[in-house]
Amino acid sequence: MAKLVVFGATGYAGGRIGAEARRRGHEVVGVARNVDGISGDFTARAGSLHDAAFVAEVAKGADVLVVATPARPDAEGKKLLDAVGSLAKAAADQGARLAFVGGAGSLHVAEGGPRLIDTPEFPDEYKPEAGNHADVLTALRALPSDVDWFYVSPAAEFGAWAAGERTGKFRLGGDVLLSDENGASKIGGDDYAIAFVDEIERPAHSRQRFTVAY
């Protein structure tokens, strides 16, 4: 079994990934600035991924560092992008894998087509967060080859407001947005977590981004 450190363990995606990993018998350390929201059989650690010393300490013995935090600036103006360097160093030092909960905005709407974020239909209010997630993906792709990582973009419709039901049935893709026969692009939180932990248990996307949708 693997040891996972989940940054953002109180969030929508991080909480479900941690719960799915625990369900399968993995050890989970849940990290958040405020750990009061961490429930279940987790080891809780209060701290910030922007604290390089804390990241290095909490990563000791980890097999996977899961990053499930917002990409936008926090209260101190620090973006997720700013933490990629220290996360990568901690992963390399421990021989651990980096696993990022990404965004859908950087997915292409069709092979060779524009990114979702660059289409006229993409809501302006979501562009800062989507753009910051895209910057994180770019930074991961530029990391040295000794840092293993994967980045999972959800479908366009993903969040607590559309949690859906656990089905265990979904499709995986690459850099192109997946939609169903009606043009809808959706994935529930539990099924996203299943796909995420599947990749941890059976690595198939080393240093790659992939996407999951119904």
From TrEMBL:
Domain NAD(P)-binding residues, every copy = 8-156
Q: Which InterPro entries match?
A: NAD(P)-bd_dom, NAD(P)-bd_dom_sf, Polyketide_Oxido-like
**What SUPFAM superfamilies does the record tag this protein with?**
NAD(P)-binding Rossmann-fold domains (SSF51735)
Top-level division of the source organism's lineage: Bacteria
**PANTHER family from the xrefs?**
FLAVIN REDUCTASE (NADPH) (PTHR43355:SF2)
User: What protein does this entry describe?
Assistant: NAD(P)-dependent oxidoreductase
